[in-house]
């Protein structure tokens, strides 16, 4: 078995952490039990480009239990947990190509290793495998029947491909499932981003001005959690409806150039390019901390900092201070990469339980239905979404109401009005 990881000797420690995460992933565990019985993915090759974390390891275990042959690489150069990668290789026999801190060349070599396996299903987080295949590895298309996509940034790329008729096979946008973005994006990103910032800086958050660029589900969760930690939260937005919602949720809303003047900590969660850019840097107060919790580090214009700084100093691992020509300093965390995975452990297992339940079930769905699907970006079928929510509630010991026959009849009629 070919693989490329940091150190196989880390495997036993990684196994312990994988099993610890598994305790808080009961939905995925229930799917794994069924997959072991039914083997719905028997003989299917899956090429997965995901964050190599303990939660991902439990997804991989589930896919393998279903009969799949899984090849895994990292979806970000800084998000790999090296002990998890080792455990997957040693204890589960999964070819893993991921090393925390790998350079860009190694990163794409690892992506190519996944593509070389000739996967039938791609499983992406950020659409780098899909992009690579379509741009420079069209030879892989012959074996692929479909794919899944985990995150907002990847869905944006795939929808652009579909719109331009460049996408060559169907992909289910797992990120669009209610049981994914309502929970993973909001509660997962909200908690794990603050976790990464605190671990890297050990700064007190209470009383700080905390700027959030982007008020989608990730931004909502982050703003809510920062407020709960005592921050004065400012939201920057381009969408008038999202900005209005942020305002009515009790947050200050202002343009980025104004926010730069008061920001103590600034986090981007937009999925766009150069969100923190030259106009921000010129207004930013000395000592401001900037970081990103979106998928790609392009949300922060790091080349501008590199070009205009008179000095760059690593204060501690993944904490870099740039001194500008006028003497002001700006602190960048985790090279502008996902601060929640680079500086901490990413989302808690309980929310990834639902996200990865979607991945597992959508792989099964894709195998059964891809032949009838045109190349496009699809939402998760509602019955899958609802079943995951139902099972999650059951594992939490929460029961809900059901409609009576009388109510069902009323909901399906039009005759009854004002009485």
Automatic annotation (TrEMBL):
The keyword Hydrolase applies. The keyword Electron transport does not apply. Binds 1 NAD(+) per subunit. Transmembrane segments: none annotated. It is found in: Cytoplasm. Its cofactor is NAD(+). Pfam families: AdoHcyase, AdoHcyase_NAD. NAD(+) binds at residues 151-153, 185, 214-219, 237, 272, 293-295, 340. Residues 185-346 form the S-adenosyl-L-homocysteine hydrolase NAD binding domain. Keywords: Cytoplasm, Hydrolase, NAD, One-carbon metabolism. HAMAP family: AdoHcyase. PANTHER family: ADENOSYLHOMOCYSTEINASE. This is Adenosylhomocysteinase. It comes from Raoultibacter massiliensis.
């Amino acid at each position: 078995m070919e693989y490329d990881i940091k150190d196989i000797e880390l495997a036993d420690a990684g196994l312990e952490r994988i099993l610890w995460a598994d305790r808080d992933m009961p939905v995925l565990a229930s799917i794994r039990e069924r997959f072991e019985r039914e083997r719905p993915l028997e003989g299917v090759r899956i090429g997965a480009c995901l964050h190599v974390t303990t939660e991902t390891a439990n997804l991989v275990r589930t896919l393998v239990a279903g009969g799949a042959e899984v090849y895994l690489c990292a979806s970000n150069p800084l998000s790999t947990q090296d002990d998890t990668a080792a455990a997957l290789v040693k204890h589960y026999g999964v070819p893993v190509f991921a090393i925390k801190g790998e350079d860009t060349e190694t990163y794409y070599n690892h992506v190519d290793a996944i593509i070389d396996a000739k996967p039938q299903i791609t499983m992406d987080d950020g659409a780098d495998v899909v992009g690579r295949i379509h741009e420079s590895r069209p030879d892989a298309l012959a074996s692929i029947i479909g794919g899944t996509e985990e995150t907002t940034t990847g869905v944006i790329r795939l929808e652009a491909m579909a719109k331009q008729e460049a996408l060559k096979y169907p992909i289910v946008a797992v990120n669009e499932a209610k049981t994914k973005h309502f929970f993973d994006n909001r509660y997962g990103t909200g908690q794990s981003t603050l976790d990464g910032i605190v671990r890297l800086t050990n700064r007190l958050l209470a009383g700080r001005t905390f700027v959030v660029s982007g008020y989608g589900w990730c931004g909502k969760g982050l703003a809510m959690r920062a407020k709960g930690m005592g921050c004065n939260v400012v939201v920057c937005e381009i969408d008038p409806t999202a900005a209005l919602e942020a305002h009515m949720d009790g947050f200050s809303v202002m343009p980025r150039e104004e926010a730069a003047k008061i920001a103590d900590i600034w986090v981007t969660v937009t999925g766009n390019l150069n969100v923190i850019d030259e106009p921000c840097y010129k207004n930013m107060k000395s000592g401001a901390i900037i970081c990103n919790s979106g998928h790609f580090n392009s949300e922060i214009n790091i080349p501008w900092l590199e070009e205009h700084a008179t000095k760059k100093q690593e204060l501690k691992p993944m904490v870099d201070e740039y001194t500008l020509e006028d003497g002001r300093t700006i602190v960048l965390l985790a090279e502008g990469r996902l601060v929640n995975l680079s500086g901490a452990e990413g989302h808690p297992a309980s929310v990834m339980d639902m996200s990865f339940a979607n991945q597992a079930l959508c792989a099964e769905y894709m195998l059964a239905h891809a032949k009838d699907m045109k190349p496009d970006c699809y939402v998760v079928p509602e019955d899958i979404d609802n079943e995951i929510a139902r099972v999650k509630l059951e594992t939490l010991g929460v029961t809900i109401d059901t409609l009576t026959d009388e109510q069902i009849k009323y909901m399906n009629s039009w005759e009854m009005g004002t009485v």
